[in-house]
Design a protein that fits this description.
Length: 262
């Protein structure tokens, strides 16, 4: 227990220092010897940092919402199909799906960029969510494992009551895997929210950029004002932190459920 507490403190220290620095006057951030508690709490640092970040924040929220809803929809359908439906080549198709996860993204980056350029998707948000929701490899795998852990008696009872395949999926099976859905949704949100490489490659207009790019631009504009940079970084991590604390119970339960039946 003591070891875990020490490790937690070590990993939390950079985060705590960032929050502390975000509330300090500029001349106190890099003072020697360093101080952890600000002599004066400058809450106006957050107002200054937030000025101009709202468009980037809304873009990140939009992309995260599209990624989460789209990926959960397609991953749950695919996971249920691989878990419960019988069709020719099911195991081969699932193996091929998992094999695609082993291909480094750098391998298909140039062909992907050329394709998006040909169809007019460069400098739009489409490349940042459409490929993700149509290729939900990890989400499909996790939900397939969760669906396989649901007792077949529930599904058979629904069929005896005259429920269709989709009705059984929607009303009976999907509520049984809510923890796994929460886990996939949380991971998808964080991946979308923290994505720096995608916007850097596919977006040119500043008005379309997301929060990670905003931090890069902010750093260039306020390079010498460390306290404002730390305030902007703190504002950026608030949504993922809130999501994590709200979904951590479901996250652990969802990951556990996925391993109940292989």
């Amino acid at each position: 227990m003591i070891t875990l507490i020490v490790l937690a403190g070590v990993f939390a220290m950079p985060l705590l220092w960032m929050v502390s620095a975000s509330l300090k006057p500029e001349n106190e951030v890099l003072a020697s010897p360093p101080t952890f508690i600000p002599s004066v709490f400058q809450w106006e640092n957050y107002a200054a940092a937030a000025d101009g970040l709202l468009p980037f924040f809304l873009n990140s929220v939009k992309l995260a919402a599209l990624n989460v809803t789209g990926l959960l929809f397609f991953a749950s359908l695919a996971g249920y199909g691989f878990a419960r439906l019988n069709f020719v080549g099911k195991n081969v198709a699932f193996a091929l799906l998992l094999a695609t996860a082993m291909i480094p993204s750098m391998v298909y980056l140039i062909p992907q960029y050329m394709l998006f350029r040909e169809i007019g998707w460069i400098d739009t948000h489409f490349p940042l969510w459409v490929p993700n929701v149509l290729t939900p490899v990890f989400g499909t795998f996790l939900l397939r494992q969760s669906f396989r852990g649901v007792p077949r008696e529930l599904e058979e009872a629904a069929k005896l009551d005259g429920a269709s395949v989709f009705g059984t999926f929607w009303r009976i099976m999907l509520p049984q895997v809510k923890p796994a859905l929460a886990a996939v949704g949380a991971l998808t949100f964080m991946a979308s929210w923290n994505d720096l490489f995608g916007p850097l490659i596919f977006l040119n207009s500043t008005r379309l950029q997301t929060m990670p790019i905003a931090l890069v631009l902010f750093q260039g504009e306020f390079f010498t004002q460390t306290n404002l940079m730390m305030a902007a970084a703190t504002l950026t991590i608030i949504p993922p932190l809130i999501l994590f604390f709200l979904a951590q119970r479901y996250f652990v339960q969802g990951i556990t459920m996925s391993g109940l039946k292989g």
